[in-house]
Amino acid sequence: MTVIPQRPRPDYHPPMVPLAVVYEDEFVLVLDKPTGLLTVSGTSPGTHDCLESRAIDYNSEARLVHRLDWDTSGLIIFGLTAKTRAHLGRQFEDRVVKKQYVARVWGHPDQQSGIVNQPLRCDWPNRPRQMIDHEQGREAITEWEAISQTETTTDLLMKPKTGRSHQLRVHCQYLGHPIIGDRMYAPDEAYYAHERMCLHSTQVEFYHPVTREWLNLKSPCPF
């Protein structure tokens, strides 16, 4: 697997867009995060503005139960009570929650679909970059399917079965088709092919923590 020099993250200028509410009741809040907005505040000055802080401004009880990378867009779930957050957290731990992403990748895979089963761990000297490691890595499994293509790119529907950091990004790199605009794992031709990283959380399914209704929420892909 080709090692790409890690590019510095651009200066943080969070997009000033209205909060996009996909689902809301007294127990659960699901938002559609724009690219370029941190999920939680960082340690650097000026990074307090994030999706979680905006959600708390909207509803003071909102707390995250999972995250997305700052340059990934799409659906994120918040719990509005301690009990619902615990219930949702267990669903993630037990792999009950089903997630789908759309990734635009460089090139054309030889197959139309497949499964990547490659364990991941943090590449500590280059953190937050992740790496495949068959001795120390944690299980990471992704199903993928090609859904459309252009002359130079392919859109993949990706269904992660585990939730490791940078899982889809590293698995796409492993396939030889890095995600367009990915500053950590894409070579220059793929990195500069789009103004953003083309990864979007387009669908999430889970049991409502109170009603036990199976929710299926969607967000259209913005690229």
Can you put this structure into words, describing what you see?
It holds the Pfam family PseudoU_synth_2. Helices cover 15% and strands 31% of the residues. It is built from four helices and twelve strands. It has helices at residues 51-58, 82-93, 167-175, 188-191; strands at 21-24, 28-33, 63-64, 73-79, 98-106, 113-117, 120-122, 130-132, 141-149, 153-160, 199-207, 214-218. Strands 1, 2, 3, 4, 5, 6, 9, 10, 11 and 12 form a ten-stranded mixed beta sheet that branches. A two-stranded antiparallel ribbon has the order 7-8. The chain is globular. The protein starts with 20 loop residues before the first strand and ends in a 5-residue tail after the last strand. The model has no long low-confidence stretch (mean pLDDT 96).
Span between N and C termini? 27 Å
- The low-pLDDT segments are none
Question: What's the gyration radius in Å?
Answer: 17 Å
Q: Indicate the CATH architecture of the largest domain.
A: 2-Layer Sandwich
Number of strands: 12
Q: Give the H and E element order.
A: EEHEEHEEEEEEHHEE
Class from helix and strand fractions? alpha+beta
Report mean pLDDT, rounded to a whole number: 96
Superfamily (CATH H level) name of the largest domain: Pseudouridine synthase
Helix content: 10-25%
Briefly note the CATH topology name of the largest domain.
Answer: Pseudouridine synthase
- The total tally of domains equals 2
Global morphology: globular
User: How many H/I helices?
Assistant: 4
Beta-strand portion reads 25-35%
Could you give a short account of the major beta sheet?
10 strands, mixed
What is the name of the CATH class of the largest domain? Alpha Beta
